[in-house]
Design brief:
With about 90 residues, the protein is mainly β. It has one helix at about 85-90, and strands at about 1-5, 10, 15-20, 25-30, 35, 45-50, 60-70, 70-80. It has a single domain (about 1-85), classed as Macroglobulin (MG2) domain (Immunoglobulin-like). The chain has one helix and eight strands, in the order E-E-E-E-E-E-E-E-H.
Length: about 90
């Protein structure tokens, strides 16, 4: 499985795009910010958009991916850095 985030960093309220190549898998589960997503897989590829929840503290967060199929069981972790919201970034 090959997977990537379009952006490595985001702020609360921003949309993050993820794409994955999951050849041989018929199911992909992505866990992000306490939610589980199961994007459709077409021709071995899956894409997903999710939002960084408002109020998420600044820090680095792991996105867990699991792909499964008849002869496939793969997992991966992608890291996303969440920056402080604009109104907090300007504070001393």
């Amino acid at each position: 499985m090959l997977a990537r985030l379009e952006n490595d960093a985001a702020r609360p309220g921003e949309v993050v795009r993820l794409s994955a190549q999951v050849i041989g898998a018929d199911k992909l589960v992505v866990r992000a910010f306490g939610q589980s997503y199961t994007p459709s897989i077409a021709l071995g590829r899956a894409e997903l958009e999710f939002m960084v929840p408002d109020g998420t503290p600044a820090g680095t967060y792991e996105r867990e991916l699991s792909a499964t199929g008849p002869d496939v069981q793969k997992s991966s972790v992608l890291r996303l850095t969440v920056s402080a919201p604009d109104d907090q970034a300007a504070r001393p």
